[in-house]
Amino acid sequence: MPTLKKRKLLSQRHPILYFVAVWARRLKRMAEWHLDDKKYAAKRTTDKLSNRIKKHQSVLLKKLGENNEQLQLNKVTNLKIAVSNLDGILIRPGETFSFCRLVGLPTKRKGYLLGMELSFGEARAGIGGGICQISNLIHWLVIHSKLTVCERYHHSFDPFPDDGRILPFGSGATVFYNYRDYQFTNNTEHIFQINLWFSDKCLEGELRVNAELDYAYHVKEKEHQFLKINGQFYRRNEIWRDKILKFESGKVVATELLTRNFARVTYKPEFYIEEC
Predict the structure, then answer these.
(1) Does an H or E element contain 56, and which?
(2) Which PANTHER family match (predicted)?
(3) Which of 28, 97, 137, 198 pairs with 268 at a CA distance of 20 to 30 A?
(4) pTM given for the model
(5) Where are the domains of the chain?
(6) Of 274, 271, 170, 189, which Cα lies nearest the Cα of 229?
(7) Residues 6+ apart with CB under 8 A from 219
């Protein structure tokens, strides 16, 4: 069966319509920020909370396709600007963390550069491109806690082969100011904190809490496969989480499915299953 050519959206054929559609959604979100009943996290501090829940690091410069070295270097600049608005943020009981609300709109005036972003099924340059690396890292920290993710998006396609991938495919969170936000809410009695910093080669981050917790979480991947369907490659997997009692020899007391992923792949994987 031949693969049908995907028709372009009207907004893709007429850029002015795309601009209008984006800003209509942005204005709607801005109105929601002022009119909804959420209490958004805003306080940041350099004083670290007492207990670390999870730490992770993400390599800054990766091999992603060809001829993108400058976009990779620009991405580091973009990351540093965005991190300056997030580092040390406290999420107190009842508060919601909003990535886009805290970071704001990436613009040239703020110092953002052209970086790589994924849009309309392809990788291309865009102002502020690459800051999803921060939301990806934060989401990985958050799913190792009792914080409640209330808004998350992920890319609909996988553009590059794995290059030293550590985290499971589909375990990140993409953002696009401001209507594709990453949000989570603190429905616990504890105060949480996200700290972000840079080492020579990595973006580093940690999630902290103001009290010692008697449980921890382990996140794992299951059922990972590459598929070829009607001449097109796809990738799928499942992300699961175990809740573990820390003071009972690591006893697992609950297991839950966090997400199922299924996405188009724009490269040929080395191993795959062909389905009719």
Answers:
(1) strand 51-59
(2) EXPORTED PROTEIN (PTHR35788:SF1), EXPORTED PROTEIN-RELATED (PTHR35788)
(3) 137
(4) 0.91
(5) 38-212, 214-276
(6) 274
(7) 140, 143, 144, 168, 171, 239, 240, 241, 258
